[in-house]
């Protein structure tokens, strides 16, 4: 039993050590700066990995909006206090539209059989997004 306890303690120490070594992300830096700033300021919310959570809210007002994983606001995603938002869907749709525009532009720029290439690129993108690729 003592050996198991020692192994668990050593494993935990290494796991905690790894977490401490990771440099702060932009979200964590922004959060720390806001927490040390003025009262009532917007404080970013970061996930376990230090990335921005899809929904960000201004704690003092209750206004919320959606952001990308890099913290960029998704246009048209503002919600008033007490209104539910669906940020993961908005970001997914925004990224899908951007991806389709990029793929269409690429297919036509490369010439040749553009529709076949476009179809292949869209199928590959869909498979990758669904985790099948």
TrEMBL record:
Residue ranges constituting the Thyroglobulin type-1 domain according to the UniProt record: 24-87
Disulfide bonds: 27-46, 57-64
Residues that span the membrane, as ranges: 93-111
Keyword list, A-Z: Disulfide bond, Membrane, Repeat, Secreted, Signal, Transmembrane, Transmembrane helix
Localization per Swiss-Prot or TrEMBL: Secreted
One of the GO BP terms on file: cell-matrix adhesion
Matching InterPro entries: Dev_reg/Prot_inhib, Thyroglobulin_1, Thyroglobulin_1_sf
SUPFAM superfamilies to which the protein is assigned, alphabetical: Thyroglobulin type-1 domain
Residues of the signal peptide: 1-19
GO cellular component: basement membrane; extracellular space
Main localization category: secreted
Name recorded for this polypeptide: Saxiphilin-like
Organism in which the protein naturally occurs: Salvelinus namaycush
